[in-house]
């Protein structure tokens, strides 16, 4: 049965007939409607630092990138962004950063406590691979969710694109289990179309979403950054085995993830909006997504968080962007959620 299920995933991942794919997206949308409803959860994103100690081959924040202007927000700046998100009716603030050793455990814990005291926002953290005692401290302070992408279930490919720090081996699966034990809602996800990613490994990623019982799943196309080694690297795979980094492929993975994991919260990602700026948000919402993560940081900060180039970052003010997002949601017959938007588990 496992092989049959894998083969079904592979057939869909290789499907390129538009009418068949519309059926897939409609099925995923129906699963979404029945499982999590029509409300779209808005999470206010604050990218608090673009410093990173890692040298990941795909990421523009990588430590060797000397061309990137680095920044680290103050607690006061982060709090101001969170309060703005709260005034706009968002249910969550997401604090994201590179893996920055300058972000101390107590600084984050104090900030989380202050956010929980001053707002009704759920707090999501996405700060990379941190020590278990740090994750525990932040959970004790009141953090609700943690996002840590495993990027690919192919251990060889992961090791290639995500080299370990000296004397330390990355084990994201162990950290995801640790987060679950600590009581976080746990989010993870993958890049679609990274060089060296096969259809077989991508199908395994979707199965792993289900096996991990994730509360949140993020799927977006790989977008090469010119200041990274991977941007000029050729895939080791034959062309017919290499997954393309297209919007269509990302939408297929999103739809299949929704069908496999009906209860999970899934965003229409910024990467999808970047590769398809005209229709990416709507296409994502119609293929199973129920979350958007509008950036609530000042414009001059947003542009510096350059994981990939030409990121879809609105140059409008945050309130103007919020109004446009609501219009786009309502235009396709969906509603904006009220509250933190935690996972709804079906007994």
Explained architecture:
- Strands 1, 2, 3, 4, 5, 6, 7 and 8 form an 8-stranded parallel beta sheet that branches.
- The chain has 347 residues and is of the alpha/beta class.
- It starts with a helix and ends in an 11-residue tail after the last strand.
- Helix 2 (18-36) crosses helix 9 and helix 5 runs parallel beside helix 7.
- Helix 4 (105-118) links the parallel strand 2 (92-97) and strand 3.
- Helices cover 42% and strands 12% of the residues.
What are the main properties of this structure?
single chain; 347 residues; alpha/beta; eight-stranded parallel sheet
Number of strands: 8
Which runs of at least 5 residues are low in confidence (pLDDT < 50)?
A: none
Estimate what percentage of residues fall within beta strands.
Answer: 5-15%
Coarse shape:
globular
Order of helices and strands: HHEHEHEHEHHEHEHHHEHHE
Mean pLDDT: 95
Radius of gyration: 19 Å
Oligomer: single chain
**Major sheet size, sense and barrel closure:** 8 strands, parallel
**Gap between N and C termini, in Å?**
24 Å
Alpha-beta content class: alpha/beta
Amount of helix: 40-55%
CATH topology: TIM Barrel
- The CATH class assignment is Alpha Beta
What CATH architecture do you see? Alpha-Beta Barrel
Q: Say which CATH homologous superfamily is assigned.
A: Aldolase class I
